[in-house]
Specification:
It is built from 9 helices and 4 strands. The protein has a 4-stranded antiparallel beta sheet. The chain is an alpha+beta fold and 187 residues long.
Length: 187
């Protein structure tokens, strides 16, 4: 039995779901971001209620309808590619997503916007901006290296997009982080 789960965004989420499902006496065969495959077929109403309660306690939610599952799978794909891979992100996102789900991009984009209240492009940009923040926090890469890593055509384009989302430039963001950091002596 495959169960689709909302808000699984990292490997730690997978570990939590695995642990909690096992505590319920269920046998996970495979767990991926957004999906849980159980040995048990099918779960009864009481078992689903217990599972829902457990998932909810950790900020997860079981997804029942087909369109919501598709949207969650799209989000999982974007998050996986941006936050959990080290490959170059110079994707044609529309081609990647429509190819992955074997659906017209216009359909996917319209469905995403109608369910989420933002466009798929805005979701991708927001995820990239979060990754930029993370990389700026680590302070190991130049802005040019970050731009290349995330598939931007130039550091200037990255800066413009970052500013539109956050209201500050990457440099201002980095300075704010550095200014608010306390030394070890102050801790």
């Amino acid at each position: 039995m495959t169960i689709y789960i909302k808000n699984m965004v990292c490997r730690r989420c997978i570990m939590v779901v695995k642990s909690e499902v096992e505590k319920l006496g269920l046998t996970p065969l495979d767990i991926r971001m957004g999906e849980l495959e159980l040995k048990e077929e099918p779960l009864g109403g009481l078992e689903l209620q217990k599972l829902d309660k457990t998932l909810h306690a950790f900020g997860f939610e079981r997804i029942d309808d087909k369109k919501s599952r598709l949207i969650q799978r799209i989000k999982d794909l974007v998050i996986q590619r941006i936050h959990h891979t080290d490959e170059d992100l110079a994707y044609n996102w529309s081609g990647l997503i429509s190819g992955e789900f074997n659906l017209e991009y216009n359909y996917i984009s319209h469905l995403f916007s109608s369910k989420e209240g933002i466009t798929l492009e805005q979701f991708i940009i927001r995820q990239k901006v979060e990754k930029i923040k993370e990389l700026l926090l680590y302070d190991e890469l130049t802005l040019g290296e970050i731009a290349w890593k995330l598939g931007y055509s130039s550091p200037a384009y990255l800066s413009n997009q970052f500013r539109k989302v956050t209201g500050m430039t990457p440099g201002e963001f980095r300075n704010q982080i550095t200014k608010n950091r306390r030394s070890i002596d102050e801790l």
